Amino acid sequence: MTSTTTRTARSARGQRADRPGFTCTQCGWTSVKWVGRCGECQEWGSVVEDAASTAGPRTVATAPPRGPARPVTEIDVEAARARPTGVGELDRVLGGGLVPGAVVLMAGEPGVGKSTLLLDVAGRVATAHGTVLYVTGEESAGQVRLRAERIGALAPRLLLAAETDLGAVLGHIEQTEPSLLVVDSVQTIASALVDGAPGGVSQVREVAAALIAAAKARDLPTLLVGHVTKDGAVAGPRTLEHLVDVVCQFEGDRHSRLRLVRATKNRYGPTDEVGCFDLTETGIVELPDPSGLFLSHAVRHVPGTCVTVTLEGRRPLATEVQALVVPSLLSNPRRTTSGVDSSRLAMVLAVLQRRAGVNLGDRDVYVSTVGGARVVEPGADLAVALATASGGENVPLLDGLVALGEVGLAGEIRPVVGIDRRLAEARRLGFTRAVVPSGAVDPASVPPGLEVLEAVHLAQAVELARGPRLRSA
Hints:
- The protein is α/β, with parallel strands linked by helices.
- It has 12 helices and 21 strands.
- Strand 13 and strand 14 (315-327) form a beta hairpin.
- The longest helix has 18 residues, at 201-218.
């Protein structure tokens, strides 16, 4: 009886091991049977069968260790320090530069500038350090050469290879022995030993694993370009983000010049740093001081404008909010936004009318930011409210004024994080007054030359922003 039970259990385990699995090529969701629609991302026709695995589980050591285990105090740390790429804003995001053997995944929407930025990095590294191998699977070598000429990235030690086969890419690595590898993109490279189309779950997993193994074995820093789905997530299996060392998101509106690079995962540095770039006809230029893109310097003392300072990571950015309030001919007045969250604006307008006495029920309200900036944090609520109040009364606010604070439903002004850095940035840009939540600022940390106006309630903030001239009138 015992032997029969044992054989039955082994047979059941064998049947479970041989049972095919099905995986979604978009999000990596798995199922034991084929379905027409993914149960995770709801995509139709994306579930495909995985290749059956012929190798059993590893229970013993199959190869000797590369070296004996050593005390942590004897480990050489100089070989693990980051090397600058030559692009300061990218080094800020990476934590100082590229670490030998590190694999960085750069993801972003089509046309945002991923290839241009990495080609610029490849040209700088090839000029300053050594041979760089740039593998392109989406464009021809001639197209990449034309872009390199346009952005000034021509370097004799920058090698181009137009390949889509994983074996050929690994052969180029062994032949050239580069100091930096750039692969554009990981979804276009495929292995002949794995079933499935390029970009599928099995192919992306195999290509990423092979490139990461080559990078670790040679201490070769590697930059991978990754596609994104319609939701903005990295295309391919979720394990791709776990395999690499750094995941960077390249963000930017196609109608704006500003491009932001932020790290969502970084084993060698912080994940709260943001790199700012300006997309021009000659390439991507880093912006150590991007605040000038979001401020309007041509018009002064215009009703309906207010400046706030937002935080992108740990970097403060001054942004101007503009509001236009006009009489409405509709029974349901318009509420139109650009760069501001529409639901957040609706809440601020309701609080402004109910708690501060600003009549907006029969008026159209248009709120926008300057320069294509996107303001999503609650710390910009006060600036939106003051700009709308100023536009509704057709009276400009005090000159040199910034507003920092979150507006609550009861009309209270709540503190925001990093207010000291925001005030320092405002003073550096020449602002002389700041409306802030009451008790949120230490008087000793206020920059010289900046007058702080503390407000407890939204109605009080509106009165302070009007100035003594209007209050006395």
